[in-house]
Amino acid sequence: MTSDRKIKANRVNAQISTGPKTYQGRARSAKNAFRHGLSLPIQSDQALCEEVQALARQIAGRDANAHIEILARQVAEAQIDLRRVRSARHQLLSDALANPHYESRADTRAKIRVIKQRLTPKLADIPLPAFIEKYLITTQEGPAQFATILSEETKQLLAIGRYERRALSRRKFAIRALDEAWRHR
């Protein structure tokens, strides 16, 4: 049986553990649904199911038997899944590129450090040099921004790449099985 002291300690800990506090932590946790959305089966989304059905009918043809229709559906599911993964990668990169204030996490931490130093009472009266003001409000542009985005989003891009490889593999084996069924028909 759990003691009253342990129950009280658990309640205090539960009040403290309420999720991420910082902007970056909240932004990262907000991506959880997006990140895990790619692993959901196509059957969980009605709109995708209808696309799969339409594509499977095109792949199988009019006079297909039940076995070929099943194999065509597997090919269609893999193809729709592949399109969904590639769309997610495109969305990730286009959102980051469209953000004019995108900067690396290291730059953000450095800017926060400078601002915190400026907020200390003994430094508050000292005017900021022009280069620090410029440093605090500038962001990268062009190829440098693109390189920063790629380096910062590498973890997400690698995860998306794993989903893409899985979808490509599923499509390849489904096409092989469908070709084999057509040959034996």
How would you summarize what this structure contains?
The protein is mostly helical and 185 residues long.
What does this structure look like?
- This protein is an all-alpha fold.
- 76% of the residues lie in helices and 0% in strands.
- The protein contains nine helices and no strands.
- The protein has helices spanning 4-16, 23-30, 32-37, 46-60, 66-98, 105-119, 130-137, 142-152, 154-184.
- α4 packs across α5 (66-98) and α5 packs antiparallel against α9 (154-184).
- The protein is flat.
Shape: flat
- Beta-strand content bin: under 5%
Number of helices: 9
Q: What is the rounded Rg?
A: 26 Å
How do the strands and helices of this protein lay out in sequence?
Elements: H1 4-16, H2 23-30, H3 32-37, H4 46-60, H5 66-98, H6 105-119, H7 130-137, H8 142-152, H9 154-184
Key traits:
single chain; 185 residues; 9 helices; 0% strand; flat
